[in-house]
TrEMBL record:
Signal peptide: none annotated. It is a multi-pass membrane protein. Belongs to the CPA3 antiporters (TC 2.A.63) subunit E family. It comes from Brevibacterium aurantiacum. This is Multicomponent Na+:H+ antiporter subunit E. The chain crosses the membrane at residues 6-30. InterPro entries: Cation_antiport_E (IPR002758). Keywords: Cell membrane, Membrane, Transmembrane, Transmembrane helix.
Amino acid sequence: MMRFVHGIAYLAYIGWAIVTGSATIVTRLFRPGQYAQPMIVEVPLRCVTDLEVTMFASSITITPGTLVTAIAAGTSTQPPVLFVHALFEDSEESALEGLYDMESRLLAMTRGRAPTTAASTVTEVEHEEGSP
């Protein structure tokens, strides 16, 4: 039941992100010299399954102003990594904060609960999930 509730909440969140991202793009079109501040950020993931990584990458790409440019596969000691092109973030920290918020919401939907902290390795993620 919680996954269903988190799923509805995630769809609403993505819908809102699409609306606000579109509004940001349109607003910045009419501000001289302030259209974009492009950057590429490296995002180590807490997502470990192919479904989670694909859904997260798709969610980022569907949101106006962001685009997944590359995915680095994870290993037994390192999590997968996304490289995300962001147009309208003020700093790398603010970009990562928004992306980790989106990832937490996605993981709450797929796992039934949000992760408590950012994991730096696949082993930490598996331990967090209760896997041996």
